[in-house]
Design a protein that fits this description.
Largest sheet of chain A: 6 strands, mixed
Strand order of the largest sheet of chain A: 8-10-7-11-9-12
Distance between the termini of chain A: 40 Å
Order of helices and strands of chain A: HEEEHEHEEEHHHEHEHHEHEE
Helix content of chain A: 25-40%
Largest interface: A-B, 74 and 74 residues
CATH topology of the largest domain in chain A: Phosphoribosyl-aminoimidazole Synthetase, Chain A, domain 2
Oligomer: homodimer
CATH architecture of the largest domain in chain A: Alpha-Beta Complex
Number of strands of chain A: 12
CATH class of the largest domain in chain A: Alpha Beta
Radius of gyration of chain A: 21 Å
Number of helices of chain A: 10
Number of domains of chain A: 2
CATH superfamily of the largest domain in chain A: PurM-like C-terminal domain
Shape of chain A: globular
């Protein structure tokens, strides 16, 4: 059994120094020097045993996920991630409070974004819960909100949709549990660089953590409120990007679309891009080696129209992820 | 059962607007405008069911405690608390996810420091865990570290010590469970204003959350490392401030001292004050209506000497609070 102070010292030893961290781990609070003419962008997300991961996950994957879900939020604002604080609630027994678990956890956590310095945190005893507070910066006025969508904008998503929902569906069916879909679940790739390139180009941006439809709904609601007139969207189902693994596991589009529309935890970015900029923006994404797809358009009619390849509307019952939904 | 989004809207409605919060609750991350020529001071502390509080606690006390423990950390740096993020992990059943619990929780949480704006957060399902990330500011270079103690400094503590340890001891003995000591446990008073007055006066400051001896030890260790020569302290046991409730419950000093020296969760401030400033500083504290006591002195001999009224050394076995200690 290692003591709380031993574990904190163990963490402290692997953190590099950087001039913007005036005081890091080891005082009552950290002291940070923010950049001139920048605004702060901050998010917090906890990951919880049996909600976001299970006991059989390698510690490194748990660490990666904890950082990645927060990086994705900052990416969606166009921010540069800089500092992070970690609040670990650990059960009072092995493997959680042992150096090997903690070391591997930190490998994944810190490895997910070497630009981020761990500046402080907290440890408590209790059911496993990993709280992360990630802070970043953006040049003043450049943060990209979810509320800026305009009629006529193209809707663009990065990467592929539905892999995590597919992995969960396969696991429910007793199918493959260590295929490419599950690896995606344990190892999402937050689009940090994409966000920073989006300044001045993208009208609105949001990360897809609750599912495409739910998060598109959030973007449209926020943008409608901002404009004080209703907005909607048309999505072309045949353009929804699917990974090879998802296509193989769910070849029937009628089975696949619900996973891509409703499944959460993809941590891709959804962007509303002015049509005049769309070609240049897709070119930029291509140069960053980021797969991207135009999947629809923002319209002045409220609601989200899902359009099948034959032009018919698609009316599957779908819902976004809700941690408290009674199912 | 309320949905996650309903609960978030419910929270959002009671948060005031302020010009330094560019974007608050409702986007992927908050956007904050820091003050020119200031540094950021940030802390995170989670409070956990059955570790820091129990199911029978009123929601308002849980909320107050969650904010107070973080305020105390910022106070110990001399920072002005400004923004907070809240990561709620709530069991998927009543009362936790119900509006009445949440409303009362927020009454206590937000009421603990009206200067602080709730700018974002996160909800997940799981064993009750309340993660708080509190951010504040200090004029650049003015943060008060724990590492600045100098030989000859007077050691000053605010308020009274040992009430929470006393409440726990009484409860273990099956004694009073709703006396003044327990009320202190549920309702600590972070010394936010004291911290801000300490700029340029106090050499070193730390909040007493792990217990006086443990936190004095942290201050001496950090200050020794900073000076690259060992420091110690002498404490005069008769000067340890005790509340009327503690004196009544534990009239024998030999029983009371261990509670005052070893007990955690007092959330008072321990300060190392240059002897030339001590009178003026005690006068300032008095004007702020903050009880304060000089309890000892920093010396150049390593170790902490506990001196009894008769001048004899006191050698009780004592340990600071450690969340992972095996008892």
């Amino acid at each position: 059994m290692s003591s709380e102070f031993d574990l904190i010292k163990r963490i402290q030893q692997r953190i590099p120094q950087r001039s913007d961290v005036v005081t890091g781990i080891g005082d009552d609070a950290c002291v940070l020097a923010p950049s001139v003419d920048h605004q702060l962008v901050c998010t917090t997300d906890s990951i919880v045993l049996d909600c976001h991961f299970t006991e059989d996950w390698p510690a490194q994957d748990v660490g990666h996920l904890a950082m990645a879900v927060n990086l994705s939020d900052l990416a969606a604002m166009g921010a540069l991630p800089r500092w992070v604080m970690l609040s670990l609630t650990l059960p009072n027994h092995a493997p959680w409070t042992q150096p090997p678990w903690l070391d591997k956890f930190l490998d994944g956590f810190l490895g997910a974004c070497p630009d981020v310095i761990l500046t402080g945190g907290n440890m408590a005893g209790g059911p496993l819960n990993i709280g992360v507070c990630l802070m970043g910066e953006v040049p003043s006025g450049q943060a990209i909100m979810r509320s800026g969508a305009q009629p006529g904008d193209a809707l663009v998503v990065t990467g592929h949709l539905g892999d995590v929902a597919g992995a969960l569906a396969l696991s429910d069916q007793g199918g493959i549990v260590d295929g490419p879909l599950e690896r995606r679940m344990k190892h999402p790739t937050p689009r940090v660089r994409v966000g920073q390139q989006a300044w001045g180009v993208v009208h609105a941006m949001i990360d897809i953590s609750d599912g495409l439809l739910a998060d598109l709904g959030h973007m449209l609601e926020a943008s409608s409120n901002q404009r004080m007139s209703a907005l909607g969207a048309a999505l072309w189902l045949e353009t929804l990007p699917a990974s090879a693994g998802l296509m193989e596991a769910f070849p029937d589009p009628k089975t696949r679309w619900p996973l891509q529309l409703g499944g959460g935890s993809d941590y891709e970015l959804l962007m509303s891009v002015p049509s005049s900029q769309i070609e240049a923006w897709l070119h930029s994404l291509h140069q960053m080696d980021v797969p991207a797809s135009v999947i629809g358009r923002v319209v002045e009619t409220p609601g989200i129209d899902l359009i099948q390849p034959d032009g018919q509307r698609y009316d599957a019952p779908l819902a976004g992820w809700d941690h408290f939904r009674s199912t």
